[in-house]
Specification:
Order of helices and strands: EHHEEHHHHEHEHHEEEHHEEHEHEHEHHH
Shape: globular
CATH topology of the largest domain: Rossmann fold
GO biological process, one term: antibiotic biosynthetic process
Oligomer: single chain
Strand content: 5-15%
CATH architecture of the largest domain: 3-Layer(aba) Sandwich
InterPro entries: EryCIII-like_C (IPR010610), EryCIII-like_N (IPR048284), Glycosyltransferase_28 (IPR050426), UDP_glucos_trans (IPR002213)
Family: Belongs to the glycosyltransferase 28 family.
Strand order of the largest sheet: 3-2-1-4-5-6-7
Number of domains: 2
Structural class: alpha/beta
Helix content: 40-55%
Protein name: UDP:flavonoid glycosyltransferase YjiC, YdhE family
Number of helices: 17
CATH superfamily of the largest domain: Glycogen Phosphorylase B
GO molecular function: hexosyltransferase activity; UDP-glycosyltransferase activity
Length: 376
């Protein structure tokens, strides 16, 4: 079986598909990832990857889109609240990539296409080649309705290519725990979210005893620091000295020189996979990216979500509604909020319940035979 994985040009969209790609490869099938921009990081996961748009810049694309669709960009910065808004925004991003996706699919001739639901080109490719498509979720809204909304959003592009309908066979694959999934798709498959945040040699201090002092990881993901800046870091640095905890700033090597000398209980790290870090923490404070949120849930620790735009408000609401953490604004960040995050046993209990729920979901390897059957 030949499987083509098509991702929108973002790490947060391609990383959730890595575990399934590994499972398919381990079963002896061929896998190719077709994407561009930051999502080319899939190659670092040992996956064969093609750049469908060399030189593509997400930032440049978004600036151009902002000039043409200012209301969408204002919405993205303020925070999307509905999956259909996500589709409207990413429709602008994926439309220019459709010809490249079609070309890659026609060259490779897959038996099955797996795609992030905000990528519209894969839908056209599956329809043109007559192969089934899997809508692979990456957050807390079901991938099926999102893919259908993308199909409707791109009706004019379908018409341009002489297509009147989508793939004849499709399946939704959702990775969010069922108790937190919005708009569940009755015809979808559930798959356990296996965190992949990049590889790396783990530092010795990660395994060292903290002496009973709780450790709190702070991360803003890969996109937010470039788009909205370092956000709550300054406020956190003012709060940290008054909290009896060790804070780890996992900001991907962001320049912190403007903040002066860090408090004694705060240290910054250049890069470390979030999964291993979160598993040593009592709590995590972050920006609300879907991959970050799911990775922390997999670790079973409470989280404080400070959403900074895009779909992060959707993710923050899901966490707060399940009781596995808190959702707040940057301005809300104070000593009392951090102490609540550390001291509220209900948050920890709910986080551990979600962790158990995720662990009971079907592992990626168990779905491979079903993919083979789907591919026919």
């Amino acid at each position: 079986m030949r499987v083509l994985i098509v991702s929108s040009p973002g790490i947060g969209h391609v990383f959730p598909m890595v575990s399934l790609a590994w499972a398919v490869r381990a079963a002896g099938h061929d896998v190719l990832v077709a994407t561009t921009g930051q999502a080319l990081a899939a190659a670092d996961a040992g996956l064969h990857t093609v750049d469908i748009a060399p030189g593509f810049s997400f930032e440049t694309n978004m600036r151009d889109a902002a000039a043409r669709h200012p209301h969408l960009m204002a919405l993205a910065r303020g925070g999307l609240t509905d999956p259909r808004q996500v589709v409207e925004l990413f429709g602008v991003v994926t439309r220019p990539l459709v010809p490249a996706v079609l070309a890659a699919a026609e060259r490779w001739r897959p038996d099955l296409i797996v795609h992030s639901p905000t990528d519209g080109g894969a839908l056209l490719a599956a329809a043109r080649l007559g192969v089934p498509v899997v809508h692979h979720g990456f957050g807390f809204f079901s991938a099926g309705p999102v893919a259908q909304a993308m199909r409707e959003n791109m009706a004019d592009v379908y018409a341009e290519h002489g297509l009147t309908s989508g793939a004849t066979r499709s399946v939704t694959l959702d990775v969010a725990p069922p108790s937190m999934l919005a708009e569940p798709d009755d015809f979808g498959w559930a798959m356990r979210y296996v965190p992949y945040n990049g590889g790396g040699v783990l530092p010795d201090w990660l395994a060292q005893d903290t002496g009973g002092r709780p450790r709190i990881a702070v991360t803003l993901g890969t996109v937010a620091p470039r788009v909205t800046g370092l956000g709550p870091v300054e406020r956190l640095l003012a709060v940290a000295p008054r909290v009896d905890a060790e804070f780890v700033l996992a900001l991907g090597g962001a320049d912190l020189s403007g903040f002066g000398e860090l408090p004694a209980n705060v240290h910054a790290v250049d890069w470390i996979p979030l999964g291993p870090l979160a598993s040593t923490c009592a709590a995590v404070i972050h920006h609300g990216g879907a991959g970050t949120t799911l990775t922390v849930l997999d670790a079973g620790v409470p989280q404080l979500v400070l959403p900074s735009g895009a779909d992060r408000h959707i993710n923050a609401r899901a966490v707060a509604a399940r009781g596995a953490g808190l959702a707040a604004t940057d301005e809300d960040l104070d000593v009392a909020l951090v102490e609540q995050l550390l001291g509220d046993d209900k948050l920890r209990t709910a986080a551990q319940e979600v962790r158990a729920e995720m662990a009971a979901m079907p592992a990626p390897a168990t779905l491979v035979p079903r993919l083979v059957e789907l591919a026919g």
